[in-house]
Specification:
The chain is mainly alpha-helical. Helices cover about 70% and strands about 0% of the residues.
């Protein structure tokens, strides 16, 4: 779902040096900030690897200083890291810590959208964060979270609707998955049917399409299942990009 994206380094080090480094080479100028921090964020989100997650938080702060032109994207990632910390806090029963991190989430997302309201990368980070965690927020926050999620995916949809069938499986699946899930969670029944049909049209023989078929046949199943993140963010992409860059 994310045509996100790239912030850059110098390719003066050999790939073996990169692989041995405990942190990404933040001076490389051909990779976006999204590429540089995404894998470590997702290591926390999906595997609870908090060491790598903390590294992502540290690198976001470093990149804020080094890449002022990418401030909007980095603010979105700051929101993304805070929403996970908020979820962990509420699940641990720490209401004060939850509120701190959730307030930070809302602040950073709002600032990112203020700077770049139609940026695909910002919208992807905000929307993807809510897809991952809106259902794990305290119930009083879920409706607004899903509403914000829908708005973020709609930005991406308007930019990519005409070419959605030509996008890679992961990107079109995540884009439509986000539209479907946020439509369902916000009670947009007409939109839900529209995006389910589109998913079946362009991704029928994928994990996304099979889940869309299930939702169409059994609407009740949508209440406690997730149609997004079916081919999500395998690790190693950053290393692969660095390997390609080192050969140029």
């Amino acid at each position: 779902m994310r045509s996100i994206l790239c912030a850059l380094f110098v390719a003066s080090l050999a790939i073996n040096a990169y692989a041995a480094s405990p942190e990404p080479p933040l001076d490389e100028k051909r990779l976006s900030v999204h590429t540089l921090v995404r894998e470590d964020v997702f290591a926390g989100w999906r595997s609870n690897d908090m060491e790598r997650f903390a590294r992502a938080e540290k690198n976001i702060e470093l990149l804020m200083q080094q890449r002022p032109q990418s401030k909007a994207a980095l603010l979105a990632w700051k929101g993304a890291t805070n929403i996970y910390r908020a979820v962990l806090a509420t699940e641990a029963g720490d209401d004060e810590k939850f509120q701190h991190h959730f307030d930070q989430t809302l602040h950073f997302f709002a600032e990112a959208k203020k700077l770049a309201s139609r940026d695909v990368g910002v919208s992807a980070v905000v929307g993807g964060s809510y897809v991952m965690f809106a259902d794990r927020l305290p119930e009083r926050h879920r409706a607004q979270a899903w509403s914000d999620c829908y708005d973020s995916y709609l930005v991406m949809w308007k930019l990519q609707e005409r070419v959605v069938g030509k996008l890679p499986v992961h990107i079109r699946g995540e884009l439509l998955g986000g539209m479907i899930q946020s439509s369902q969670r916000t009670g947009r029944t007409e939109e839900l049917d529209k995006y389910l049909d589109k998913m079946l049209e362009v991704s029928a023989n994928t994990r996304y399409g099979r889940m869309a078929k299930k939702w169409k046949e059994d609407p009740q199943s949508a209440l406690d299942t997730n149609i997004s993140c079916k081919t999500c963010h395998a690790s190693g992409r950053l290393e692969e990009k660095l390997a390609r860059l080192s050969g140029e």
